[in-house]
What does this fold into?
Amino acid sequence: MFTCDNECLDVEIRKYQISKKYKKDNIKIIMISESIPRNDEDYFDGPDIPTFIENTNTLFNNIGYKYRTYDDYLKNGVYLTTALKCVKKDYLVSSKTIENCSYLLEKELDQFRNLKVIMLMGDFAIKAINYIYKRKCGKRIIPNGATYKIRNDEYVFNRIRFIPSYTQTGDSFGIEKTKTKMMEEDINKAMKSLGK
It folds into this structure.
């Protein structure tokens, strides 16, 4: 379990725990979404088919990967997590909150030694990764700019490819069909880079 000593005012503090048993060496792709859901049962590893998995399944299934459960993703080397480890009170959160959570995300990511791709599903994930790598290496991984403008460039650092995209876990998932299509393209890039 990871613990956080920060007192962020724009989130509801939750204890964060890595959700499933998995083989760390098997994980090749990490998808980082926005924040954990208000209802814990909606998280990726919730019972039945939780909302977060349902949305993610839509994207993967549309491009030919017939995953159904979180275990299906883990078995195929895809680990799903969030940038924020607490629940947002409102739509947006401060940069400081994202920076605070990035310390927990960094510990989480440090477990995986065979990563090939990190998918940044939304602005929170992009900002969190930039905070992590600014601390670790003194540089940002992803430049500033609208996602649709930067998503087609290639960002590689330490043999890991970083793919900025849009979040698939929010309430607005599926409303903008162009974003859904772009997410599918980005996931396809990630999977093809592993030869899947």
